[in-house]
Amino acid sequence: MVTVLFDSSFERTIKKIKNNKIKERLKKQIKKIVFSPGIGKPMRYTRKNTREFYVSPYRLSYIYIKKDNKLIFLDIYHKDKQ
Length: 82
What we know:
The protein is of the alpha+beta class. Helix content is 30%, strand content 35%.
């Protein structure tokens, strides 16, 4: 099983979201990522080795370390404030 960790900025941003529908969608997508970590879009250049998954209107940024079987959720940010 994959070890899941959350960065402090990720947790802080989740707490700021007021809309419960969006929070439920995020939880559902996080579960999907945990069971299949390779589904996100691989990033390039300075964000190499990280992945991004789009959950309207947010983007989940995470890294999957295959050899340690770790999944670290780095950040969640609004699509327009990229």
